[in-house]
């Protein structure tokens, strides 16, 4: 804590980075940290590899002007990371998870502080590490960090309200609205933030009652036609690029789909594969006793948490096929995985 406090007070220009394809937790803790830093008079900005989903705009609001997206303004993003004198890395276990930002983060010799809840943090990359896997989200971990800073003194009501709202939003999305990774500390955080004036009803409405119809039309199609369940109890869905176009699906609009097949009694692991321009992205979720993390790490260059992980196969480097070859690769991977899975 002393290192964090001293680093913040010395810094004149602070950058906040998080993982590529930022989700509710990544954006929640980034916005919360930005909001707190500005409240104590610091100059700070968020640098992203790619744009956050439109569905999270409600949380970003006025902070949008302090966000630089490398995919859109690579020069500006590189300059922001070159010129800053402190970098906070949030909701990622290694700087490679920021993709295009990683080389600029590595090149800057300033202090780097990690706040994260994933397995296997790359400890050598950071000057100080707040890493805890037995917690709901990076937002919950940042909440605890903020409670410990001078000026907040363990009183949630002293966290700026916008920051408090962003933290509750991040925790809510990473726990799937209190369905997974919930600990006694998670309820305590929620309780303290509600008491501090956070409007949870509004957050839930913004998060879960505000989708475009397309999402549900696509979900209907996928559950009807694309869902497969293997003899081992692995469910998988592949969404190809044509289907994305057909339903006019935007980034973030398939959030939560991967969880649904886990509701089926004999399903032990659920896999969602999405075709993108240069890669296939995978999301993996599992029930207790099956390691989504090991599956994502071993077959999809990824990782994350024991029961919720992600990864990717880059087209043309190591994996040269299309959707049909991908399905063959996936089926073989599932067979191989369950032969070895003993936990
Ligand atoms: P999601 O399936 O929601 O994209 O990701 C699930 C979890 O896995 C998240 O905690 C996310 O940060 C992590 N994750 C997603 N993609 C990757 C990846 O390519 N590499 C690693 N190491 N983790 C990932
Ligand atoms: Mn997270």
Structure description:
- The protein is an alpha/beta fold.
- It folds into two domains: about 210 residues, Alpha-Beta Complex (inorganic pyrophosphatase (n-terminal core)); about 130 residues, Diaminopimelate Epimerase, Chain A, domain 1.
- The chain contains 13 helices and twelve strands.
- The chain has a six-stranded parallel β-sheet. A six-stranded mixed β-sheet has the order 7-8-9-10-12-11.
- The protein starts with a helix and ends with a helix.
- The mean pLDDT is about 95.
- Bound molecules: guanosine-5'-monophosphate and manganese (II) ion.
- The site of manganese (II) ion has 6 residues, from loops.
Which strand order spans the largest sheet, edge to edge or round the barrel?
Answer: 3-2-1-4-5-6
Task: Report the helical percentage.
Answer: 25-40%
CATH class of the largest domain: Alpha Beta
Which structural class best describes the helix and strand composition? alpha/beta
Heteromolecules bound: guanosine-5'-monophosphate, manganese (II) ion
Counted by DSSP, the helix tally is 13
